[in-house]
Amino acid sequence: MAVVVCSGYPCSGKSFRSNQIKEFFQKRDIQSGGSKQIIVLSENSHSLDIKRSAYDTSAAEKPARAALLTAIIRLISPDTILIVDAPNYIKGFRYQIYCAAREVKVRVATVYVLTSQEQCREWNKLREGDDRYSDETLENLFLRYEEPSSMVRWDSPLFTLLWSDESIPQSTLDALWDAVDKGKVSNPNSGTVATVKAPTDALATLEKTTHSIMQQIMSSQDGFGGFITLSPTPSSSPLKLMLPPRNITLPELSRLKRQFVTAQKKAITLGTIERGSLDWSEDGVCQRFVIFLEEQLQR
């Protein structure tokens, strides 16, 4: 249904706001008679257990961020409101979440918890053990933070919450609920749709089938044109091909075969994002080849 991306400085109060939002969503869902699943995914939850020390070095941060993204993708679904409680301080990472949500056709909203750096430092000092950032890491994350913007589609709609407010304004909560319940759903495009790959034997089937059709054409034509019957195998459904009133030479037919095979090889090696995957069976290849030949020979 939706992904709510919480963003802000470390120790800015994102977990507190995430739980407030979850509580409000649960009440609204009950009032509307729904049965939505509302989940807060925190980076320090038991399922992820990402330590604050993971941000000490880039070598440790990359796998931690990858684990968080994997968990987000796993939990995104049409009947779930997922609240991502993590710094999400890199705009490229927020864009990855946006793309993952768009692929499943769920809404996205961003909550920016705006807190001063000084307040974050004070709250960090109150933490103990693994829950505390080192001073050096905290300052580094302040410098690297990329503030969300309502001008870019992956951060929009954007809701800014001030740390000094004890509770979230009711108007903001209502607007946030409307965004996840009735907001615009972005359709996936070629950048987010999974590419459908051809089977491993597609190239062999392509060569075998087109060669068989060539042989059948050469042996069936009589120079007067008209329909001939073709099929890749004896058990296949027969197909009709309209030949022009002349003899088709082997070099001409070989040239057309090469053109067809070259175009089909691109789909094999690069995959396809067409609606539905291409049929790489002998019947499917035969049907496409016959259509291609009929178009070329009638010119």
From TrEMBL:
**Which GO molecular-function terms appear in the entry?**
ATP binding
Q: Which UniProt keywords apply?
A: ATP-binding, Nucleotide-binding
TM spans (from-to): none
Q: Which Pfam families match?
A: KTI12 (PF08433)
Q: What InterPro entries does the annotation carry?
A: KTI12/PSTK, P-loop_NTPase
The family annotation for this protein states:
Belongs to the KTI12 family.
**What name appears for this protein in its UniProt entry?**
Chromatin associated protein KTI12
